[in-house]
């Protein structure tokens, strides 16, 4: 094995090059898809603006004056939020799944997103926090929950699927707390409360979008770089240490990044179900031989949320929350995990 | 369904194109008052001016109703609920008017921009310092409506009459016929005199304005309900609840266990969700301990929606008849 | 699963039997005391004398007496029958699924009932609890079959993790559809938003009389399920060898669960975790014999529900906290502790 790493045979090196090229092409393709859907999401609405006109309006040379208002003022915030939130969730889910070596280890099941959600709701219901303060509250809530689960895991860590059960319990606890806070809050508009509990990219405020964009710009490249080391980590702690990687530090940084990303996504759009769960595996499946990558998982997440939000806005007569659609899509995926686990005989 | 939205947006676009091209020419034909320059001092205290009288108006549905009574028809409206189900919009003919929203906080600004409005009309709320449709908590796209044109309107205050007169003034500035306004005002004044006579004949009659829902017996605070303030001014003793809710002082909320705290001679139900709210109270066993309820002494009150003299006249006449038949010895 | 004991559950000695019987009496006493407190406490303060008058002086009338007789008594009675139904339902579920984490809330049974009720309101305009209940039965039944069927595929049967996951998946789909309907329909929202949280207040004698027959009859039948559950606990093969028609028993028990949980949900909204906690509490007191667990569950259910309902009234007086929220706050940590510390993966 060591000999192999030191002097890879010709064919192996060629294979690796091919894999890298395929990975690059795939990343480019995913990015392009996200861009295309982005333009389309700016195009549809109660008034349709042709995609070419959308681009003209974006670069400041609109075909009709009112195109600018519709495209830039009305639709742009939501159209930007969807891929940002999706990318944050996708990256964060992929990191959790790889570090915990479990396809179910997404923030949905770990309770991290519900922890962030409680903090946000408490922030605006109890202390009238706004803007950046809410983002901060979300991060604190996410970390508090993550720390709580870590403590519950104890020294040996939570073995097998047990931490998923713990996570489901934590999520339920947080859900109770959230519905209590919403019931007590002065903003007791039932409908607003319900959309908040489900999550919708239409809710994002400007401050949320800015914070999320900055966080992604910093954390996504950082975790993508660390992702190379992640592959090493995947060999297991023992092997990785032997190879000299400072496993503990990398792990801590990655978890930090993942929690921040999911917390900020939640602060912007509420809990959008199952995107973090699905994005990683989807991109991995697409990647085939190219291996997994945090960046591609982020792209897949962005794409998922974009499509879900388009469906949420236009499929029914009345627009619904984005989280309703992702929940509807994600559940069959869980069912598939269960059935597949059965077939391979290891649940 | 997809096709329908596509088609309708196409027609909207065509209409918008027609409007955008034809607008300038059409304005010249209109006989604009006072040489065409327009100015109006709105409820927010600012004076708004324009080179020519605004023609393409988007209005909150209640404001639209007020303007339409005086002959000014908007091109688009937005309502707080389903237009057909809103008691405050009963009998209004909105054919030819584009409906931009039928839910509080949601206004289709995309459609609004294709209407090319030159004025937006809504009530000004002096406490929140905001126009209807721009309140805190509405969707961002609703707030964007204000970027399309100036938002104006009279201030909500301590009397419905003030609001209606505000709309009368606005309508006049927009070209309404003053004699139409005077006729409506005259009929209302007569109804008001009859109402005052009825309350003067029953000086001890007390009333409680309520809006029971889910788990709560909510009592309206007259201080924040201009029509109830009017009734008080005109001789009806509408009870002021002792402990308005600290964060939302429009109501005092009691649990149903305490619903017998006030014992008026007559109950006035919020008519926006009547008879549902009366059924909610009827399902509560405590209802029989509220003497007015047990005696069947109850009717509705026009809650927070009056914007026209014709509506106010009809409501006053209805209440006058009710008061004439009421017993002032039921409550405590 | 008790190391798959080869013999029937340990026969109880006479002394132990007396002890357990005495325990049942104490539990019954607790129900009585809590029922009295539930009648005496509330947002309107009444004297002890008035409470006594309400029962011992049937001719007296006053607003105070109306509140006690017609408002607090029905609420208390409803809490008792719903508590019993959920306690028994949870016990049956854990017994028949041989799974210590089975709970009507976590397994998505409540969400099935909720969806069916919303559908009923939407499609047929159902208004009364008597109308709800049939939809609730159907929805609860479908969800039970779906979740258990999904989780039970494969060799190792319905493991705790698979059940929880299948429950999460089914809850997500049903929840998505429910929210889509509710968010786009104001009437359904108004009906639902109060019911959704799980509450006992505002439900009076008519609701009680409409649902009590189902709850009482199903509870009585459930009390006799001790022997078949004991046999099932030995595993399907042993049960079959002992002459038990396993498939038939399962079907009947699942039907009972659907009726108990469906009716309880129709009466009080979705209340999670009660069905989880009660059987564990009962098992802690009386050991693994279902002939004792069932009567204990039938009494401990109302004890917990009444206690949480009273707590909800006292903690945030003069306001009120819905009982579903209180139970969530109490129950989720129990769930987490069970998932964390019990050796359940073997069960």
UniProtKB/TrEMBL annotation, chain A:
One of its GO terms (molecular function) is transmembrane transporter activity. Coiled coil: none annotated. Signal peptide: none annotated. GO terms for biological process: siderophore-iron import into cell. Its main location: membrane. It is found in: Cell membrane. It comes from the Bacteria. The chain crosses the membrane at residues 21-44, 79-97, 109-127, 133-152, 164-183, 203-226, 253-279, 316-339. The keyword Lipoprotein does not apply. The keyword Cell membrane applies. It is a multi-pass membrane protein. One of its GO terms (cellular component) is plasma membrane. Keywords: Cell membrane, Membrane, Transmembrane, Transmembrane helix, Transport. Belongs to the binding-protein-dependent transport system permease family. FecCD subfamily. This is Iron ABC transporter permease. It comes from Actinorhabdospora filicis.
TrEMBL record, chain B:
Keywords: Signal, Transport. Residues 55-330 form the Fe/B12 periplasmic-binding domain. One of its GO terms (biological process) is iron coordination entity transport. This is Fe/B12 periplasmic-binding domain-containing protein. Transmembrane segments: none annotated. Pfam families: Peripla_BP_2. PANTHER family: FERRIC ENTEROBACTIN-BINDING PERIPLASMIC PROTEIN FEPB, IRON III DICITRATE-BINDING PERIPLASMIC PROTEIN. Its main location: other. The keyword ATP-binding does not apply. Residues 1-27 form the signal peptide. It is found in: Cell envelope. The lineage of its organism: Bacteria, Bacillati, Actinomycetota, Actinomycetes, Micromonosporales. Belongs to the bacterial solute-binding protein 8 family. GO terms for cellular component: outer membrane-bounded periplasmic space. It comes from the Bacteria.
From TrEMBL, chain C:
One of its GO terms (biological process) is siderophore-iron import into cell. It is a multi-pass membrane protein. The chain crosses the membrane at residues 20-41, 76-93, 105-125, 132-151, 163-186, 207-226, 252-281, 293-315, 321-341. InterPro entries: ABC_BtuC-like (IPR037294), ABC_transptr_permease_BtuC (IPR000522). It is found in: Cell membrane. GO terms for cellular component: plasma membrane. Its main location: membrane. Keywords: Cell membrane, Membrane, Transmembrane, Transmembrane helix, Transport. CDD domains: TM_ABC_iron-siderophores_like (cd06550). It comes from the Bacteria. Pfam families: FecCD (PF01032). One of its GO terms (molecular function) is transmembrane transporter activity. Belongs to the binding-protein-dependent transport system permease family. FecCD subfamily. This is Iron ABC transporter permease. It comes from Actinorhabdospora filicis.
């Amino acid at each position: 094995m060591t000999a192999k790493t030191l002097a890879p045979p010709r064919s192996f090196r060629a294979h690796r090059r091919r894999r890298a090229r395929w990975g690059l092409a795939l990343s480019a393709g995913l990015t392009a898809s996200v861009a295309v859907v982005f333009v389309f999401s700016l195009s549809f609405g109660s008034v349709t603006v042709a995609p070419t006109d959308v681009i003209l309006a974006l670069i400041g040379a609109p075909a009709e004056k009112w195109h600018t208002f519709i495209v830039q003022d009305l639709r742009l915030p939501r159209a930007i939020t969807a891929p940002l939130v999706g990318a944050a969730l996708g990256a964060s889910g992929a990191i959790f799944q790889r570090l915990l070596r479990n396809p179910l280890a997404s923030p949905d099941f770990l309770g991290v997103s519900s922890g962030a959600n409680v903090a946000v709701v408490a922030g605006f219901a109890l202390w009238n926090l706004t803007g950046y303060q809410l983002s901060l509250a979300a991060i604190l809530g996410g970390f508090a929950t993550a720390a709580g689960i870590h403590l519950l895991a104890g020294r040996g860590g939570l073995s097998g699927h047990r931490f998923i059960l713990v996570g489901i319990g934590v999520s339920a606890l947080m859900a109770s707390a959230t519905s209590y806070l919403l019931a007590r809050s002065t903003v007791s508009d039932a409908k607003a409360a319900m959309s908040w509990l489900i999550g919708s990219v239409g809710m994002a405020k400007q401050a949320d979008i800015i914070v999320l964009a900055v966080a992604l710009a910093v954390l996504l490249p950082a975790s993508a770089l660390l992702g190379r080391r992640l592959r090493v980590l995947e060999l297991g702690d023992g092997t990785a240490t032997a190879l000299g990687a400072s496993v503990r530090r990398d792990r801590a940084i990655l978890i930090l990044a993942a929690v921040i990303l999911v917390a900020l996504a939640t602060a912007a759009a509420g809990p959008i179900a199952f995107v973090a769960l699905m994005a990683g595996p989807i991109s991995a499946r697409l990647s085939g031989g190219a291996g997994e990558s945090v960046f591609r998982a982020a792209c897949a997440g962005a794409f998922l949320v974009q499509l879900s939000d388009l469906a949420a806005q236009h499929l029914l007569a009345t627009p619904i929350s984005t989280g309703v659609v992702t929940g509807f899509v994600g559940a069959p995926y869980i069912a598939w995990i269960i059935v597949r686990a059965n077939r391979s005989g290891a649940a | 369904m997809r096709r329908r939205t596509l088609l309708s947006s196409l027609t909207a676009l065509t209409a918008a194109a027609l409007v955008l091209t034809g607008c300038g020419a059409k304005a010249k034909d209109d006989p604009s008052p006072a040489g065409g320059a327009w100015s109006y001092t709105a409820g927010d205290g600012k004076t708004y001016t324009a080179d020519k009288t605004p023609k393409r108006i988007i209005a909150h549905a209640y404001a639209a109703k007020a303007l339409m009574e005086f002959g000014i028809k908007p091109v688009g409206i937005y309502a707080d609920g389903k237009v057909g189900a809103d008691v405050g919009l009963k009998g209004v003919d909105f054919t030819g008017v584009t409906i931009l929203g039928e839910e509080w906080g949601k206004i289709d600004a995309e459609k609004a921009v294709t209407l090319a409005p030159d004025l937006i009309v809504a009530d000004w709320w002096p406490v929140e310092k905001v126009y209807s449709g721009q309140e805190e908590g509405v969707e961002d796209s609703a707030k964007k409506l204000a970027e399309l044109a100036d938002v104006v309107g009279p201030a909500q205050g301590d009397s419905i009459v003030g609001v209606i007169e505000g709309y009368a003034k606005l309508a006049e500035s927009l070209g309404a016929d003053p004699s139409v306004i005077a006729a409506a005002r005259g009929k209302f004044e007569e109804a008001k005199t009859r109402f005052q006579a009825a309350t003067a004949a029953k000086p001890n009659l007390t009333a409680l304005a309520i809006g029971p829902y889910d788990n709560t017996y909510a009592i309206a605070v007259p201080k924040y309900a201009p029509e109830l303030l009017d009734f008080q001014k005109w001789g009806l003793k509408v009870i002021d609840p002792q402990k308005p809710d600290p964060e939302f002082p429009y109501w005092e909320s009691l649990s149903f266990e305490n619903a017998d705290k006030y014992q008026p001679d007559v109950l006035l139900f919020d008519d926006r969700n009547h008879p549902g709210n009366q059924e909610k109270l009827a399902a509560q066993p405590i209802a029989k301990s509220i003497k007015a309820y047990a005696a069947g002494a109850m009717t509705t009150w026009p809650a927070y929606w009056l914007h026209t003299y014709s509506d106010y006249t009809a409501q006053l006449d209805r209440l006058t008849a009710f008061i004439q038949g009421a017993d002032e010895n039921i409550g405590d | 699963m008790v190391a798959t004991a080869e013999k029937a559950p340990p026969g109880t000695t006479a002394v132990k039997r007396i002890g357990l019987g005495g325990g049942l009496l104490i539990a019954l006493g607790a129900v009585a005391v809590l029922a009295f407190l539930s009648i005496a406490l509330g947002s309107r303060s009444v004297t002890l004398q008035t409470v006594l008058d309400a029962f011992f002086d049937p001719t007296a009338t006053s607003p105070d007496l109306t509140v006690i007789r017609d408002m607090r008594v029905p609420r208390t009675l409803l809490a008792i029958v719903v508590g019993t139904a959920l306690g028994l339902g949870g016990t049956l579920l854990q017994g028949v699924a041989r799974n210590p984490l089975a709970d009507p809330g976590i397994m998505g049974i409540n969400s099935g009932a909720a969806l069916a009720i919303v559908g009923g309101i939407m499609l047929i305009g159902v208004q009364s609890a008597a109308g709800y209940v049939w939809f609730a039965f159907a929805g609860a039944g479908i969800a039970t079959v779906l979740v258990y069927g999904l989780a039970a595929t494969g060799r190792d049967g319905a493991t705790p993790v698979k059940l929880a996951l299948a429950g999460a998946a089914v809850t997500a789909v049903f929840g998505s559809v429910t929210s889509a309907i509710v968010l786009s329909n104001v009437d359904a929202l108004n009906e639902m938003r109060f019911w959704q949280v799980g509450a006992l207040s505002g439900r009076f004698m008519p609701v009680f009389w409409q649902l009590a027959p189902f709850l009482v009859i199903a509870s009585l039948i459930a009390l006799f399920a001790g022997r078949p559950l004991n046999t099932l606990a030995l595993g399907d093969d042993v049960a079959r060898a002992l002459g038990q028609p396993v498939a038939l028993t399962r079907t009947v028990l699942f039907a009972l669960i659907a009726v108990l949980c469906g009716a309880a949900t129709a009466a009080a909204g979705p209340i999670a975790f009660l069905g989880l906690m009660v059987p564990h509490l009962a098992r802690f007191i009386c050991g693994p014999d279902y002939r004792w667990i069932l009567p204990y569950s039938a009494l401990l259910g109302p004890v917990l529900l009444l206690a949480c309902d009273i707590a909800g009234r006292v903690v945030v007086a003069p306001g009120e906290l819905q009982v579903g929220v209180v139970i969530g706050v109490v129950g989720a940590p129990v769930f987490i502790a069970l998932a964390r510390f019990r050796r359940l993966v073997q069960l």
